[in-house]
Amino acid sequence: MNISDIIVLLLFIVPGVIVEKISYAMDIPSSGKRSEFREIINGLVYSLPIILITGLIMIVVNDMSTIDELMIAFNDVEYVLKFAIYVVLLAIAFGVIKGLCKDDIQGAINIIRTKLLNKIAIDDKSCWRNVFLNEKESQYVEVIKNGEKHSGFTKWYSLPNEDREIVLYFPEGLDKHPEYEKCFNKVKQTYIDLEKDIVIKDYDMKEYHKWCDEIDNKK
To answer: Which residues contact 170 (CB under 8 A, 6 or more apart)?
Structure first.
């Protein structure tokens, strides 16, 4: 195997890996462990269309008429560099598009599942993520473990691929207004870890935000 063969081989592998890396970096890590081998295999699937599109671009730009001309051109260093630049740029674009459109694609699949196949909608997101990580605003929760209760406002969460951890806090000055607790009387949803016997009640924040506005208006 000579140098040109190695370069061609890398051009077929690297683009898909770049797509996987970028799309994965744009999302929250999943609960399952990543496999490098699986990542490479998935990457090859994306490499094929990237190589085909880049090849068509180079054929048009260089006014080529046959595949043989395209392959012979790989002996030219300048041509290979241009080809590699196009491949990397397309791989980055594919990765960004894949990361941004992932939920839309899953939504389209769920429409088919629910409307045509009469099945429940599914996604690749853990319950932990759906309840906490997809909410950018702080939530008021009550955590119950082994009969012991802890309540407060959420500040930090662990990611799905880490041990379940959560940090609760109270905003500065809230201790001067104990009546705030009356705002939390409706549980919006409850997270239950059946294996670790953890229950987290997620309270509705509407009354609390309304109460905060009233406090601010009195100042």
So the answer is: 152, 153
Residue 27 contacts by C-beta under 8 Å, 6 or more apart in sequence?
Answer: 99, 102
Q: What ranges make up the beta strands (E) of 120-181? A: 140-145, 148-157, 166-169
Greatest distance between any 2 Cα atoms in the chain: 79
| pLDDT confidence bin for 151, thresholds 50/70/90 | very high
Residue where the block lists tokens 């290979």 = 80
**Which residues are CB-contacts of 17 (< 8 A; sequence separation ≥ 6)?**
39, 40, 43
Kindly report, residue by residue over 158-173, the tens digit of the pLDDT: 888 788 889 999 988 8
* Best CA proximity match to 62, nearest among 45, 86, 91: 86
Report helix, strand or coil for 121: coil
Report the distance separating Cα 165 and Cα 73, nearest Å: 55
Neighbouring-strand partners of residue 156: 167
- Closest Cα to residue 43, out of 84, 94, 6? 94
